[in-house]
Amino acid sequence: MKPTTLIPWTLAIVIPVGVLCGGLIAANVKDDKSSDKLSIRGSYMLEYRMLPDGKKVVAPDVIGMMTFTESSRNLNVFWTAGGKTNSISLIAKYTLTDKAYTESSIYYAADFDGKGMTYETAASQGTSAVTSNGGKTQFQFPLHGEPSGEFDKHSLTATKAGAFVDYWKKID
């Protein structure tokens, strides 16, 4: 091949490879920035509950799953206490910033404290302060008397003072 013919072939290979590599580098830079964004997204399974007396409660006496998408939360928890069954189900929209967690309830159903099943579909909204430190994000769930939550990369610890501490494992 003549040197003049070799140049276009070399450029035909080098330019697409350079564009592809540049795109991959840009994608990685974008991913690095987005990983700095505060996020609690994922699904969490309730592993166990610790009661104030030190008793550890596990399935089938306490079962739960909670999922956070980019803007929605779904919670289902079932437990037994004193021989009675209890449950909570929730659907909500939320926003999370480095300063505040805001939740807007869409649906809430609860059956505990011997009151029978209650349903709430009226819109309600609440906001609580967010703190982040050492890879952990903490805030109080602002509606329905829910516990406070502390999220890290792999788990959620939900604490309702004087009542329980729930340990949730992130499954995705």
Please, could you describe this protein's structure?
There is one protein chain. The chain has one helix spanning 3-36; strands at 42-50, 56-57, 62-68, 72-81, 84-96, 100-111, 118-120, 124-129, 131-133, 136-140, 148-151, 155-160, 164-170. The protein has 172 residues and is α+β, with helices and mostly antiparallel strands. Strands 1, 2, 3, 4, 5, 6, 7, 8, 9, 10, 11, 12 and 13 form a 13-stranded antiparallel β-sheet that branches. The longest helix has 34 residues, at 3-36.
List the helices and strands and how they pair.
Layout: H1 3-36, E1 42-50, E2 56-57, E3 62-68, E4 72-81, E5 84-96, E6 100-111, E7 118-120, E8 124-129, E9 131-133, E10 136-140, E11 148-151, E12 155-160, E13 164-170
Antiparallel strand pairs: 1-2, 1-3, 1-13, 3-4, 4-5, 5-6, 6-7, 6-8, 9-10, 10-11, 11-12, 12-13
